[in-house]
Design goal:
The complex is a heterodimer of chains A (about 270) and B (about 80). Chain A is mainly α and about 270 residues long. Chain A contains ten helices and two strands. Chain A has a two-stranded antiparallel ribbon. The N and C termini of chain A lie far apart (about 50 Å). In chain B, helix 1 packs antiparallel against helix 2 and helix 2 runs antiparallel to helix 3. The chains are: A mainly alpha (about 270), B mainly alpha (about 80).
């Protein structure tokens, strides 16, 4: 009891000290309330058909997605590669047992939970797909959409069972293949304009989205009469596939039964 | 100015809820309860991000911190046992 009180008092004192220090200017001079030049530049160029410097635009109304996949697209490509490597690390821990199919047939939770989950899973997937497809118009994008969609297989895993997911076609090999295909797709979409420009004998850039003054090729700025942000839509959809498949395969591996998981480590004390 | 005050008030309320939820999560002996308090803290953070006008972060934070992360922990708790001794 005394310990709890001491803990609470320490926490309150710490928070109050932090607040006082911040209030007295401990963070240094705060940025002025008006827009800074960098923000003005981004806002002028991200989507503005009437702006004079139309030569440098992403043609996407959502400035955050435009910055993530166009202004600093190379950073995001490498972030995706890091995520890919992290999941490879997780899979390497279970490399022997991850491909084996379980024999047991668990029943899962009750019918009420199962039916309501079945409805929810469709809604989760729809929200995820729309987050990716509208990523260039509204807040959201590939990573957000992928992590929203990844919630669906995890809920199915808990409420139904692993063998239900595997019977429905969500298997280890398929998810790994989908994830690799999406990553290759991101690479190809990044190189597409440069390759096409090389074939046509003009100048082109890696990760080029809209035509530039010295590089006349680019992605189409509209899809079905809606601003598509050129390459942004392609990148968002591919990133969604990569992230959703990556999370799903990690959950499939993590939910391996204890019996199979122990087989993985059983030989280690004999040092083979 | 009124709207700013309301946002600041909601922000303070969310921050308070998150601190209380964190303390409860740290002190809980039942690990399943600790996960639920941690999710409550994440909900408070999600509201704070939304009021600080970062909707892109809200979308990913809500999915990861309320959906994926607690479910991973529940899978782990199923393997290691529910009560901390």
């Amino acid at each position: 009891m005394l310990r709890d009180v001491a803990f609470a008092v320490t926490l309150v004192v710490f928070i109050v000290l932090l607040a006082v220090a911040t209030g007295l200017g401990g963070l240094g001079p705060l940025p002025p309330p008006r827009l800074r030049p960098l923000a003005v530049n981004v806002l002028n160029t991200t989507y503005n058909p009437y702006y004079a410097a139309r030569n440098f635009t992403a043609d996407a109304p959502e400035a955050v997605t435009a910055v993530v996949w166009d202004y600093r697209g190379l950073d995001t490509v490498f972030e995706t590669a890091v995520f890919y490597g992290a999941i490879i690390g997780a899979l390497a821990l279970y490399r022997e047992v991850s491909k084996r199919v379980e024999e047991s047939r668990p029943r899962g939770l009750s019918t009420i939970v199962k039916v309501s989950t079945a409805v929810m899973v469709v809604a989760i997937a729809a929200v995820g797909v729309s987050t990716a497809m509208h990523g260039q118009l509204t807040p959201g994008g590939g990573f957000q959409a992928g992590s929203i969609i990844a919630v669906a297989p995890v809920v199915l895993l808990v409420v139904f069972s692993k063998s239900f997911l595997e019977k429905a076609g969500v298997r280890y090999a398929k998810m790994v293949a989908l994830r690799s295909a999406a990553l290759v797709g991101i690479g190809l979409a990044a190189l597409a304009v440069a390759i096409a420009a090389g074939a046509m004998g003009c100048w082109g850039y890696v990760l080029q989205n809209q035509p530039k003054p010295d590089a006349p090729l680019g992605y189409p700025p509209r899809a079905l009469d809606v601003p598509s942000g050129g390459s942004l839509m392609v990148f968002n959809v591919l990133e969604m596939l990569a992230v959703a498949a990556g999370f799903t395969v990690v959950f499939l591996v993590l939910s391996t039964s204890e019996k199979l998981a122990k087989e993985e480590v059983v030989g280690e004390e004999h040092g083979y | 100015m009124m709207a700013v005050d309301i946002v600041m008030g909601l922000l303070a309320a969310s921050a308070l809820i998150s601190v209380i939820a964190t303390v409860l999560a740290v002190q809980a002996r039942d690990l399943l309860k600790a996960v639920i308090f941690s999710a409550l803290q994440s909900v408070a953070y999600t509201l704070m991000y939304f009021m600080l006008m970062a909707p892109d972060i809200v979308l990913v934070y809500a999915a990861v911190a309320v959906g994926i992360y607690p479910l991973i922990l529940i899978l782990l708790i199923k393997k290691v046992g529910r009560y901390e001794v």
